[in-house]
Amino acid sequence: MDYSKYSINELLDCLNNIDKDAHPENYEKLILELEKRKPELEAFQKQEQEEFTFSTENRVKLLSWLQIATCVGFTIAFVNVLFGSRELIDLIVYGFIAVFNGLAGYKLLKRSRYGYELSYLNQILQILTINTGTLFFTYTGLGSFLIGIEGELFFRANILSTDFRFYTGENLGQFGFGVDLVAIFFLSVLHSCRELGLDTKANKAFKADS
């Protein structure tokens, strides 16, 4: 096997798929070719890492602004209740969620201390919508894409629609639950940041200043 005409991407693909026990000679040639082209390999891996980091950072910025926009959405809901029904429990809930989203979004955008932790918690709370018949809970930010079961499999999407409901009682409807794929996506983005060490930069800066 002549690997000299293979691209770096093709060489790495071969490395991931070759059976070194079944093809020891080809494996040795592959390793030698990678060693020979080590500077090119390191440049390729560095570029891929930079592209991944750039993509992840942009997604984090998107999540930051979505949380800030969600803060605005719940602030509007708070004002509507304030000048409408004036229900104290709604005012407390909408006010708290507005402040929580605004704080999480701002701190994440600025890479401030606890920005990642608050955003993690915010997305975890949005993952599950559930109705047991005696308990109903749902919480969405600026938008969601739910997949779940409510008698039958359903897909449900909404955008520009903040929502929080928590009820207990009898006969609240048919049993069902849904999982928000948008929340899961952003949790994976935050996890990627943690793997890249982007979440520790703010903490290190905070410790240096204190």
Automatic annotation (TrEMBL):
Designated name of the protein: Uncharacterized protein
Annotated transmembrane regions: 62-85, 91-109, 130-155, 175-193
Keywords: Membrane, Transmembrane, Transmembrane helix
Native source organism of the sequence: Pseudoalteromonas byunsanensis
